[in-house]
Amino acid sequence: MFQLDFMQNAFMAGFIISILCPFIGLFLVLRRYSMIGDTLSHSSFAGVAIGLVIGVNPLITAFLFTTLCAIVIEFLREYYKKYAELVMSLVLTFSLGIAIILISSGKASAKVNSFLFGSILTVSKEDIFLILIVGIICLVALIFLFNKLIYITFDEEGAKTSGVKVKLINYIFTILVGSTISMSIRVMGILVISSIMIVPVATAMQLKKGFKTTLLFSIGFGMFDIMMGLFLSYYINSAPGGTIAITSVFTLILVIIFDKFFNFKQ
């Protein structure tokens, strides 16, 4: 299996994604921003459609469009503070409208199934390079902003009072979410990207540990889910996105059952 180039590419991409997605996912969960991840993952469909129509690498156009949507979401949240879900619906509706129009026009130069459901066959060296570059930038930014993000996550008003540039950091964080999602499309697929950002975090939280320990376990579970999902998808010939999503849910269920018998608090 590992002697095949496309499997090597898929596992390399999966390794990068397995670190980045749960890292961002923990902050999304704790800040109750889970729907932002879901909205941006579906919005990336429009970016993919644009790339397919104009003949540009869909990962690049998905990255640009998803980043733009992330900025718009954070901008509109200032005007709809009490109705954050309304902003998600607006961006999601607009993005899907663009995607449907472009795909239904018949001008797309490739099938969209690999982007909707993920495909280990279509991950190229160019994709690996893009994922690696964006992944490193996102990880460096997260590490650099780590303490401030924790402060904002648990006490946003206190962070503002202390002089932390909350608005700027929120914009940067939302852009990082969009960037991570756009880079995960090839392996995970648009429809289930948000699952690998949220489910490993939910699994790690069952262990009832501190923040940093939960973060490490989230990355560990994310890595296990993606690697096992890719392994299974190869042998049962299934879409990796769905296989990884199911694997992550089964992992969560097993940890919950294990907790019932051994109680992680003890």
From TrEMBL:
Gene3D superfamilies per record: ABC transporter involved in vitamin B12 uptake, BtuC (1.10.3470.10)
Membrane topology summary: Multi-pass membrane protein
Protein name in the entry: High-affinity Zinc uptake system membrane protein ZnuB
UniProt keyword list: Membrane, Transmembrane, Transmembrane helix, Transport
UniProt cross-references to InterPro entries, sorted A to Z: ABC_BtuC-like, ABC_TroCD
Transmembrane stretches, start-end: 12-33, 45-73, 85-108, 128-147, 168-185, 214-236, 242-262
Localization (cell): Cell membrane; Membrane
GO cellular component annotations of the record: ATP-binding cassette (ABC) transporter complex
Keyword hit for Transmembrane: yes
Swiss-Prot/TrEMBL GO biological process terms: response to zinc ion; transmembrane transport
Homology family: Belongs to the ABC-3 integral membrane protein family.
